[in-house]
Design goal:
The structure is a homodimer of 332-residue chains.
Chain A: E1 2-6, H1 15-26, E2 32-37, H2 39-46, E3 54-58, H3 69-75, H4 80-90, E4 95-98, H5 102-113, E5 123-128, E6 136-139, H6 149-167, E7 173-177, H7 188-198, E8 204-209, H8 213-216, E9 221-223, H9 226-251, H10 254-274, E10 282-286, E11 291-295, H11 301-316, H12 319-331
Parallel strand pairs in A: 1-2, 1-4, 2-3, 4-11, 6-9, 7-8, 7-9
Antiparallel strand pairs in A: 5-6, 5-10, 10-11
Helix pairs in contact in A: 1-11, 3-5, 4-5, 6-7, 6-12
């Protein structure tokens, strides 16, 4: 198995990306890693010792975090994400992983790999930490705008197979993001999606959930349209940032704060551990015809390592074939 | 001026609601308060001393937090929120304030007071704390599902007048909640609303903002459809809850944690103060033909007091007339 890793994408590229690949291999990862990026830069980050199982493919260009993804990809044919995705298309790699511009990773996957037959729209399946200590996934975290009820049903099915196969969750529960519990809540999209989800036998439908539920781990899967998912994920992340800064600067800033920190160290670690999601901070793009995993733009080596692990398990579990098979059953 | 307060609505009713009314008066509030609820219960909470400027109107029933709002209101005609809203309709009160079932407060306002002419759909204007130390408002926080682009323009206009008149913000900036900065981002609703907002001269349009922006105070007003607003507000609140519990139990729990707390006290207060939004934790329902202010279900006395203050300023500033006037201009 070969996994193409966009070595140039992300806030800490290439160093943390390359370190993540090395960590993945050092921890016993079975896939061979193809680092895609500027040959000289990537080799400098790799160092001079021999790196078995890691090769470099040159790509001179990169889609920056704030570029317009699809126009960048159309104009330039030697971007790291474009070349990494093309490796999957050609069969030279089995999956692609990137911490770079999410829009570019999605656009490259959609343009180069295409959709799985029977899946109308792709969806980003973002993993979230929960206070139950197990991960949940939010689908769609922003791949598709203007979703229709049937798209939400397809998201629920794809995420169910993903959570079963890749995260080993038995009969994962599916919650429909809504403004209240009752089936008639929400707008047209939610009301119609509720009926479709409730009538579907290949998912374990829990019912409607609300904005507070994803973090509580009420369900293993949170289904919503990509606009809502994107706004919700960023909104929650914004609050996390404010509290992280507040704990660091307000509570433990200053002299007394530093003393307090000494006494509170164990507790701080406990809270950090509770909300740590390095292990599953990845968002596979489901519905495209190949394994494509996005990870956080701020990803450090450990997160990159785990994202490669998610890609590896998606390949070894034959996720794409499973999704193709169920979508044919679903359409029948 | 008279303000009808639903004395039975909210997790801490009637005690904290009654205390909030007393606090409002004690701090120099000019409006007379009409407490609406079970006569005996409310009088017991009021105590035996004379309470100038506070009267009680009996209502035998209450819409509980988890009841279906409009069916409860249709079936029962002696609920505290129904009677409080009817006082406004009859002119016996100038505004209604409730910490109870938000859906019931909205349904009562819409059924009893009706809409302002020229406003197609009402919107809940939820106040948020920001790290800039000033409040922002999120409109619509959940009053209307399936909003159309023109509704979002009306929300932006109503919130602009509200922030100018009631919160004294000069030329408040308006951000459109979206998944990216560029004008072509989002779905049909956001793209069309962006064009309407950009072409409107009676608002100070900033452009698109993202899920992290409301808490950062990027704009004074955050405009979105009620489904997104409700999910975002609850999602952010869920994260706040997790951190509050984490700080209390993980960081400062246990023996060492308690020692740490002693040293960190000043910092904890600083963080708490930064995120304290008692002062503006109210959500006026804009677009209905009367002043109706919702506050948090968990509201304590201080929050109730400030919500009454928001209602008072809305009345004294002639907010309903201002909204009616601008909607006639907007429609012209």
């Amino acid at each position: 198995m070969h996994i193409a890793v966009d070595a140039m994408g992300g806030d800490h590229a290439p160093d943390e990306i390359v370190r993540g690949a090395l960590l993945y291999r050092a921890e016993g990862g079975v896939a061979e890693i193809v680092l895609v990026g500027r040959d000289d830069t990537v080799r400098a980050a790799l160092g001079t010792s021999p790196r078995p199982g890691i090769t470099v493919v040159d790509a001179r260009d990169v889609v920056e975090m704030h570029e317009h993804p699809s126009s960048a990809l159309r104009r330039r044919n030697d971007t790291s994400i474009g070349i990494a995705t093309a490796l999957v298309k050609r069969g030279d790699a089995d999956a692609v992983v990137s911490a770079g511009n999410t829009g570019a990773t999605m656009a490259a996957a959609l343009l180069t790999l295409g959709r799985i037959r029977g899946i109308d729209r792709p969806a980003l399946c973002g993993m979230l930490p929960t206070t139950k200590g197990k991960p949940a996934c939010l689908i769609d975290a922003g791949a598709t705008m203007d979703a229709e009820p049937n798209n939400l049903l397809q998201y629920a099915r794809m995420a169910s197979r993903f959570m079963e196969r890749v995260h080993g969750v038995d009969r994962p529960t599916v919650g429909l993001m809504n403004v209240g519990e009752e089936s008639e809540k929400g707008g047209r999209l939610q009301q119609e999606a509720h009926a479709l989800l409730a009538g579907s036998t290949d998912i374990n439908f829990f019912g409607n959930i609300e904005g507070r539920d994803p973090l509580r781990g009420t369900t293993d899967i949170v289904v919503c349209d990509g606009f809502t998912g994107n706004v919700l994920a960023k909104g929650m992340e914004g609050v996390v940032d404010v509290f992280r800064e507040g704990i660091r600067n307000d509570i433990f800033g200053g002299l007394l704060g530093k003393v307090a920190y000494g006494f509170a160290l164990r507790g701080v670690r406990k809270l950090r551990h509770r909300l740590d999601y390095d292990e599953y901070a990845s968002a596979p793009l489901l519905g495209v015809n190949g394994v494509s995993v996005v990870t956080h733009g701020r990803a450090g080596a450990n997160m990159v390592r785990h994202a490669i692990g998610v890609a590896e398990r998606s390949v070894s579990q034959g996720l794409i074939a499973v999704l193709g098979e169920q979508s044919r059953i679903g359409a029948a």
